[in-house]
Amino acid sequence: MGEKGVFEDIIEGDTFKYYSEGEWKVSASGKYVPIINPTTRNMQFKVQACTQEEVNKVMESAKSAQKLWAKTPLWKRAELLHKAAAILKDHKKPIADCLVKEIAKAAKDAASEVVRSGDLVSYCAEEGVRVLGEGKFLVSDSFPGNERTKYCLTSKIPLGVVLAIPPFNYPVNLSVSKIAPALIAGNSLVLKPPTQGAVSALHMIHCFHLAGFPKGVISCVTGKGSEIGDFLTMHPGVNCISFTGGDTGIAISKKAGMIPLQMELGGKDACIILEDADLDLASSSIVKGGFSYSGQRCTAVKVVLVMQSIADSLVTKVNEKLGKLTVGPPENNCDITPVVTESSANFIEGLVMDAKNKGATFCQEYKRKDNLIWPLLIDNVKPDMRIAWEEPFGPVLPVIRISSVEEGIHHCNASNFGLQGCIFTKDINKAILISDAMETGTVQINSAPARGPDHFPFQGLKDSGIGSQGVTNSINMMTKIKSTVINLPTPSYTMG
């Protein structure tokens, strides 16, 4: 089941190993966690079910290794990251193959994720050299009442051990978006990949291993969340947590100690369509934004809020484009592929049936086979329907007809989420005013919500998260300021 050749060290028998102290290891538990192929619904892979004692050893190793890693010259850290990025891109096919089998991502999109991830690691290496390569010099007489008797030198120093927990939908890209900033900043990193996506992540970790990072600087533990989840997030050896996922993150934030948190927890991204919008552009963006990767994206369009006067025209155009989407297995590069688990499909179906029972208009016949759900646009959705507020994470999109811009803004802001939103209009002045009124971390004007390019800031308000991502923001978040103050016996002023 594993890739031969370069990846043969990461698997023993039919079970993938975990990574600790620079070695691939088999858990003493003797247990494994099954990974189910969303398309076949059969077991595709097995990963180690690590124990709490093994987590303790990983944390001890990470803490010890970090002290030496922090003393590694910045240029050397960057050099190793560039090397890892090149290895990652060189081996995109076996990693992409895992993504296809684990999370039913279309083959072309899986390959793109790996390449994008390599580019992110390289960019982070370069940005880290710039961001971390300079500090500040302050003088005391800039504050009232002081002579120039103090020089303050500030620099950015690592936090220690960073725990990274990525989601299933981008298990490679949203792993390296945490790994690379942590490592360039001089931290060590422990990765707990999602169950669906774990094998892709293990292949990615092996690329960092092949690059030659010191033992203990990077670790990867797999296992059941019920057994090691809280143990990891509450571990006293963790100095920072970067998490992307669902409302599990809220529970983590309540249990974690006094450490920095970087959280992205999903969204109900609203798409507001004004009367002067380019409906061809808007409909294309809605289909791409709402249905790519079967809607399993935090930044997918999750609700369309369209002015009543143009709603019929917009819905017609969206339906025409939905009819052209291909549906089927990811190996065939279909537009709509199976959602990640049967429980996810059941949840989506629950939202669909609730809308149907409450009188919504189905623009297509609801169709499902196992985990595969055909694309569905639901018109005339009302606020009493669950799908108006809940995040389906599937190829199902509600349309709410509004009578005013204010009504659209109100619906957007009434959500407990606040990740992204978008506006379609030809009036830039209106767009800016609406953008300012929307309580979301990002607003896209005349384009669907999106995370990226990866150096752009990415953040959510309310239940959508804590802190900000993006390469520079992540580097800064994974460091803290250290000040050294030189006290002079008498005031000293540099003369020109």
UniProtKB/TrEMBL annotation:
<dbReference type="InterPro" id="IPR016161">
    <property type="entry name" value="Ald_DH/histidinol_DH"/>
</dbReference>
<keyword id="KW-0963">Cytoplasm</keyword>
<comment type="similarity">
    <text>Belongs to the aldehyde dehydrogenase family.</text>
</comment>
<keyword id="KW-0560">Oxidoreductase</keyword>
<feature type="active site">
    <location>
        <position position="264"/>
    </location>
</feature>
<protein>
    <recommendedName>
        <fullName>NADP-dependent glyceraldehyde-3-phosphate dehydrogenase</fullName>
        <ecNumber>1.2.1.9</ecNumber>
    </recommendedName>
</protein>
<dbReference type="GO" id="GO:0008911">
    <property type="term" value="F:lactaldehyde dehydrogenase (NAD+) activity"/>
</dbReference>
<feature type="domain" description="Aldehyde dehydrogenase">
    <location>
        <begin position="26"/>
        <end position="483"/>
    </location>
</feature>
<dbReference type="GO" id="GO:0008886">
    <property type="term" value="F:glyceraldehyde-3-phosphate dehydrogenase (NADP+) (non-phosphorylating) activity"/>
</dbReference>
<dbReference type="GO" id="GO:0005737">
    <property type="term" value="C:cytoplasm"/>
</dbReference>
<dbReference type="InterPro" id="IPR015590">
    <property type="entry name" value="Aldehyde_DH_dom"/>
</dbReference>
<keyword id="KW-0521">NADP</keyword>
<dbReference type="InterPro" id="IPR029510">
    <property type="entry name" value="Ald_DH_CS_GLU"/>
</dbReference>
<dbReference type="InterPro" id="IPR016160">
    <property type="entry name" value="Ald_DH_CS_CYS"/>
</dbReference>
<dbReference type="Pfam" id="PF00171">
    <property type="entry name" value="Aldedh"/>
</dbReference>
<dbReference type="InterPro" id="IPR016163">
    <property type="entry name" value="Ald_DH_C"/>
</dbReference>
<dbReference type="InterPro" id="IPR051020">
    <property type="entry name" value="ALDH-related_metabolic_enz"/>
</dbReference>
<dbReference type="InterPro" id="IPR016162">
    <property type="entry name" value="Ald_DH_N"/>
</dbReference>
